[in-house]
């Protein structure tokens, strides 16, 4: 706004002094405008809620046709997934187990590294050095999942086949290693936040009792920050379960439960990969498509419950540091 | 516990934490390093003359006169290869020779008729050539030189016959002489093996039904229909692989029963008799002269369309499609995100509603990306589009809206943080001067928060550009035209990377293009993120420092 404009609007006021009280019309208009504007803003803000509701509604509605016609017990407990057979069978147990299997395997790799890295970032590294390391974590988080999948298929899989002597390079181990890398940024940043949120007092009290840094961290700070660290692990788990491209490309997509259970060199298949792989082939309105949407519902239930757990622990962590 | 032990344990712990961060960096290098290195090969490489030919024919961008001079020079060196192979084939490929002889006999008859020779001499000459043809074919069927020689001698005694002068029948004698020469030098009992080995050599040097070779098709050959077969090795690294295959035969053999197979390499030259031996050192020594590798910076990789399923060309349409989807998505997500953030920070009415909205945002952030794909298909494509009268098919609009919903939490959180970071005093100053809350927000808070909001915009941009799963069913295709409107599906970098990684044999033959695609995507996203990081640190320093 320049000064010429200001003068223009002020000039008439100099001649005929404007009444200080608004007319009823002006008053009403201002009132309506303010409230209307607020209502519009509220509606736009509410779009997030609307989106969640629509996602729930549409994914559930699409799966209802299948769920009403197929035994839910068979769907959840059956191990056979043969959607294109003459008499199709939709048993998703192996697929659900596959999802949980790679996610837990990923956590086994990611949690120790993640917590140690969080401790290093929050308590050991100097402020300047942190500014160098932090972007590394951010870049790991920014790399698109399809690029991770690309790496898994074209670099890691042949390497595993050659150097570990596995029959196939696309297997549970490959997928969970990559998932671990993808979950690490989440775990590190949330865990680091909660570890730094534990105040100086606790640390200084511990040091003044003569504890070493390791003892302070393991016996005082990490137990104090446990809520936040649990939330970090849960969020990392969410990231791993919801990931699609990497598991689709790297897990081998064989519908089976690994036997023996610790044999990570076997191929498995996850819920997300099943949806991604079969959606294009399932005809609109078919039972197969309904079953895929039903898997989507399962995924939603799984991530929603994990979300609630993480929210609970995050709020507990906030409360705990608030008191201290 | 012993003090020294505690000290050691402490050091061990510190080392472990440090190692985990070092591990993180190593992982980053291990993932990005090979990708960037191989991806850079898509743009920077040793391009051969075949590459320049391809660029001229398909993209019209090479200077014609210099290229023609270059082609002529390479042809000089190639001609000897063609000649050597042709020469050798004459003695070995009996089927081709038989049919050639048949053709000569037929065309000689036509020539006679065209000349209107009298009937009796016509019959006599035809009878003579029929005998020659039969003798030649009989000779081709034999493998012993002593049996072949009398047959060919009988043919060659007609060589001086004036009636044959200047007609196609002269070729009979050329063939006969060539075959006799071969029969004297080459052991014809291996004829079949030689012919098979020669076919292999030809497929490596020229091309097969579906794979390009080292030099491309011979000049007199008809142009293959498949574009990729029209050119030889366009890149020097490809050429060297083909040269290796040309010089060596690789076999997996089992030395003793029960032992694993081992690879054995034997020189390919040993498969051939002495007459063809000079070909191998000649091709090896003169490969550079025949292909003329030259350092090439193929920056048009980022503009060109691909040819024959990414065998040639670049990722232009993929970049365009990614930008298209991203821009349309941002049109939805920027207003929604900023307004939501402003409402959450500035209006903040009763706690319950805000809590529900916040919970929804957090939930939205946790929904798996593939479920967004399901939602986009079920809601936008199959429900909303028919309702609005659009055709219910996957398209850019559906993909953009799906991605907009997916990235909304990122946008809201970043904008909220930015708006919150604006010092209270700014706002209070404006309010104290009598401006309304809306006016204050638009003229004071928003401009101050804008760089921070921009960070959020860039982060959501990079998220939209990189996501694959949500657009699998809502708008991405692996092949197709460049989209004309938002109602067309499009190719994108993300889906293209997936497609090339799990793609067919053809994609595996051009790793530089595979990696080129994914590196383009990764670089695009890393640059966006770097800008966001820099912007963020500067903004926060500024807002705090003042």
Please state the average pLDDT score of chain B: 85
Strand order of the largest sheet of chain A: 1-2
Shape of chain A: flat
Tally of strands of chain B: 6
The level 1 CATH classification of the largest domain in chain B is Mainly Alpha
> Cα distance, first to last residue of chain A?
49 Å
**For the record, what CATH class of chain A applies?**
Mainly Alpha
Characterization of the model:
The complex is a heterodimer of chains A (324) and B (546). Chain A has 324 residues and is mostly helical. Chain A has one domain (93-323): MetI-like (MetI-like fold, Orthogonal Bundle), CATH 1.10.3720.10. Chain A is built from 13 helices and two strands. Chain A has helices at residues 3-15, 24-69, 72-77, 93-124, 127-142, 145-163, 172-197, 200-208, 213-224, 226-242, 245-250, 271-278, 287-323; strands at residues 81-82, 89-90. In chain A, strands 1-2 form a two-stranded antiparallel sheet. Chain B is mainly alpha-helical. Chain B has four domains: 3-40; 46-63 and 200-263 and 276-306, no CATH class; 64-189, no CATH class; 313-545, MetI-like (MetI-like fold, Orthogonal Bundle), CATH 1.10.3720. Chain B has helices spanning 3-40, 49-59, 64-92, 94-115, 119-141, 145-156, 170-185, 191-205, 236-247, 279-291, 316-347, 351-366, 369-388, 396-421, 424-432, 437-466, 493-501, 505-509, 511-545, and strands at residues 44-47, 248-253, 262-267, 294-297, 306-307, 312-313. In chain B, the strands form three sheets. Chain B has a two-stranded antiparallel ribbon. In chain B, strands 2-3 form a two-stranded antiparallel sheet. In chain B, strand 5 and strand 6 form a beta hairpin. In chain B, helix 13 (369-388) crosses helix 14. The radius of gyration of chain B is 36 Å and the shape is elongated. The relative contact order of chain B is 0.09. The model of chain B has no long low-confidence stretch (mean pLDDT 85).
């Amino acid at each position: 706004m320049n000064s010429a404009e200001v003068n223009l609007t002020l000039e008439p006021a100099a001649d005929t002094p404007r009444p200080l009280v608004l007319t009823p019309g002006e008053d009403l208009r201002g009132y309506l405008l303010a409230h209307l504007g607020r209502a519009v803003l509220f509606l736009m803000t509410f779009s997030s809620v609307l989106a969640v509701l629509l996602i729930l509604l549409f994914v559930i509605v699409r799966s209802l046709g299948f769920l009403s016609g197929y035994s839910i017990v068979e769907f959840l407990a059956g191990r056979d997934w043969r959607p294109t057979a003459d008499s199709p069978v939709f048993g998703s147990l192996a697929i659900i187990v596959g999802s949980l299997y790679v996610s837990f395997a990923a956590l086994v790799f990611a949690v120790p590294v993640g917590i140690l890295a969080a401790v290093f970032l929050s308590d050991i590294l100097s402020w300047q050095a942190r500014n160098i390391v932090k972007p590394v974590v951010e870049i790991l988080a920014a790399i698109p999942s399809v690029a991770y999948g690309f790496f898994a298929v074209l670099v890691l899989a042949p390497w595993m086949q050659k150097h570990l002597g596995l029959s196939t390079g696309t297997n549970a181990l490959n997928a969970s290693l990559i998932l671990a890398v993808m979950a690490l940024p989440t775990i590190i940043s949330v865990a680091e936040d909660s570890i730094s949120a534990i105040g100086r007092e606790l640390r200084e009290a511990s040091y003044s009792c003569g504890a070493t840094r390791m003892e302070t961290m393991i016996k005082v700070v990490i137990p104090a920050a446990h809520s936040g660290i649990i939330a970090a692990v849960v969020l990392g788990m969410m990231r791993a379960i919801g990931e699609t491209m990497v598991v689709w490309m790297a897990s081998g997509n064989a519908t089976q439960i690994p036997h023996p259970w610790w044999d990570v060199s076997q191929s498995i298949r996850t819920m997300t990969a099943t949806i991604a792989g079969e959606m294009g082939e399932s005809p609109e309105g078919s039972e197969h498509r309904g079953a895929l949407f039903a898997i989507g519902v399962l995924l939603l239930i799984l991530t929603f419950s994990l979300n609630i757990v993480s929210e609970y622990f995050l709020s507990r962590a906030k409360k705990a540091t608030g008191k201290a | 516990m012993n003090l020294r032990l505690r000290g050691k344990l402490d050091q061990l712990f510190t080392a472990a934490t440090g190692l985990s961060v070092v591990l993180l960096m190593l992982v980053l290098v291990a993932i990005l390093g090979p990708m960037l290195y191989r991806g850079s090969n898509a743009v920077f490489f040793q391009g051969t003359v075949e590459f320049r030919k391809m660029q001229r024919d398909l993209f019209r961008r090479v200077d014609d006169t210099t290229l023609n001079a270059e082609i002529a020079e390479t042809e000089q060196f190639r001609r000897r290869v063609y000649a050597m192979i042709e020469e050798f084939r004459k003695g070995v490929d009996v089927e081709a020779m038989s049919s050639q002889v048949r053709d000569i006999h037929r065309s000689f008859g036509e020539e006679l008729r065209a000349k209107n020779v009298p009937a009796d001499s016509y019959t006599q000459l035809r009878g003579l050539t029929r005998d020659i043809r039969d003798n030649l074919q009989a000779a081709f069927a034999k493998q012993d030189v002593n049996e072949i020689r009398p047959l060919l001698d009988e043919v060659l005694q007609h060589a001086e016959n004036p009636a044959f002068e200047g007609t196609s029948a002269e070729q009979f004698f050329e063939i006969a002489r060539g075959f006799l020469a071969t029969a004297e030098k080459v052991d014809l009992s291996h004829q079949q093996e030689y012919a098979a080995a020669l076919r292999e050599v030809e497929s490596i040097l020229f091309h097969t039904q579906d794979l390009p070779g080292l030099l491309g098709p011979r000049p007199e050959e008809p142009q293959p229909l498949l574009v990729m077969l029209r050119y030889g090795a366009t890149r020097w690294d490809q050429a060297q692989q083909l040269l290796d295959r040309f010089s060596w035969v690789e076999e997996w053999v089992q030395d003793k029963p029960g032992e694993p197979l081992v690879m054995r390499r034997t020189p390919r030259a040993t498969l051939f008799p002495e007459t063809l031996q000079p070909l191998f050192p000649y091709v090896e020594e003169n490969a550079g002269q025949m292909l003329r590798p030259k350092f090439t910076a193929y920056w048009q990789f980022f503009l060109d369309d691909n040819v024959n399923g990414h065998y040639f060309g670049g990722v232009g349409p993929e970049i365009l499609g990614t930008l298209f989807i991203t821009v349309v998505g941002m049109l939805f997500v920027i207003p929604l995100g900023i307004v939501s953030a402003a409402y959450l920070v500035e209006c903040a009415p009763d706690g319950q509603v805000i809590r529900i909205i916040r919970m929804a945002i957090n939930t939205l952030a946790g929904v798996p990306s593939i479920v967004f794909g399901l939602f986009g298909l079920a809601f936008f494509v199959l429900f909303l589009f028919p309702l609005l009268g659009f055709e219910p098919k996957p398209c850019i609009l559906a993909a953009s809206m799906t991605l907009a919903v997916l990235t909304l939490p990122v946008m809201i959180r970043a904008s909220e943080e930015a708006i919150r970071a604006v010092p209270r005093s700014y706002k209070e100053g404006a309010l104290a001067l009598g401006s309304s809350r809306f006016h204050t927000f638009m003229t004071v808070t928003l401009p101050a928060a804008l760089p921070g909001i921009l960070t959020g915009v860039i982060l959501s941009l990079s998220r939209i550009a990189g996501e694959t799963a949500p657009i699998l069913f809502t708008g991405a295709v692996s092949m197709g035209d460049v989209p004309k409107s938002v109602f067309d599906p499009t190719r994108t970098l993300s889906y293209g990377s997936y497609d090339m990684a799990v793609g067919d044999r053809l994609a595996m033959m051009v790793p530089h293009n595979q990696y080129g695609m994914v590196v383009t995507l990764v670089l695009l996203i890393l640059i966006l993120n770097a800008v966001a990081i820099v912007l963020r640190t500067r903004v926060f320093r500024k807002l705090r420092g003042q």
